[in-house]
Amino acid sequence: MQRESATMDRATAAAFLASSPLAEMWIDDAGRLQWLSSRAESLVRSAAGEAAIGSGFVDLVADTDRKRVAAWLDGDLAAPCPCRLADREALLYGRRLSPPASGCRVTVVEAQPLAHDRRLRRLAAAIAHDFNNVLGAVGVFCQLLQGGALPPSEASFVGHLHTACRLGQNFTANLQLLSGRRAPRLAKEALGPIVQGIEPVLRGLLGEGFVLRLEVTEDELPVMVDAGFVEQAVLNLVKNAREAMPSGGVVAVRVARLDLPSPVAGVDGEVPAGTYMAIAVQDEGRGIPAAAQERVWDLEYTSKETKAGVGLGLWVVRRIAELLAARLLLSSAEGNGTTVSLLLPPAG
Predict the structure, then answer these.
(1) Number of domains in the chain
(2) pTM of the model
(3) Across-strand partners of 271?
(4) Could you give the 3-state DSSP secondary structure of residue 105?
(5) Same domain, yes or no, for 155 and 303?
(6) CA distances from 325 to 187, 264, 291, 318 (A)
(7) How far is Cα 212 from Cα 197, in angstroms, rounded to an integer?
(8) 1 falls within a domain
(9) What is the mean pLDDT of each run of 10 residues along the chain (348 residues)?
(10) Are residues 195 and 336 in the same domain?
(11) CB 119 within 8 A of CB 139
């Protein structure tokens, strides 16, 4: 491929990019669109109108993605950047132009068509439903066995089996949430008893080498929640905490009242001042680099070196927060652990 030149005239550049079957664009150092391939032009014009050339590219992506895309354009472009462009999920791939040219060349890869996406979601929902039925039966038998007079060794085995069953049900709940088939069933609840009710599951999830510290406030205020969603969010956060500490450590889960005298920065914008009930999960792990703290909430983002797993954990927590009209706070620094807090307003 020939190198782009900063001295190209507009007609030559337009003809060059038009020859590409991909959605490609040239973005200058100020973040403005300069030239587009035919495919990119049809994609971008739906967002920018006729005045696509000269538009700021960041202004064309979804509001929630703009900060991340701007940081990506200012960075080394080594990793693809997910975003929503012209109401379509997309990945951006880029490379810097060589002198005397300036700016970068960006290729937009769109996600699968919507119809295909719907089929996958229906399949995920069907698998989750059937698998959950099997796990439900296993869980009932575990409860019956635990109610009998079992020797200590066998009781421990059944307890671990029951824990694995509950974790499997958490996995199917993630699939149902991803498929869009799981809507919240809200009721006035106290968060403390919900979290205390899954304490054995949390201890089983953490396993040997970990210490679970569960603290519940005495001045609790009821909130409007779906108890199953709360359990799911806490399980996912504790699982993430465990993975952040491969050598073990302490995971603290706190249910407490939180009074904010002034607004604070949250995961999805400003959190207003006021009184909240908060569930905070804190680990002593490696922490999250500042550059990755926005990306960890994205679907399919994972920090695992082996790239095992698909990064559903925090995405599900964020989705649950949206469904419960809750807020999220993230506090983390490399080498100093991470605390994620789910904030819910008191029930009226």
Answers:
(1) 3
(2) 0.57
(3) 264
(4) strand
(5) no
(6) 13, 17, 26, 10
(7) 14
(8) no
(9) 42 54 84 84 65 82 88 85 80 83 84 52 61 65 68 69 68 64 80 91 86 93 90 89 91 96 89 94 90 76 50 78 88 90 90
(10) yes
(11) no
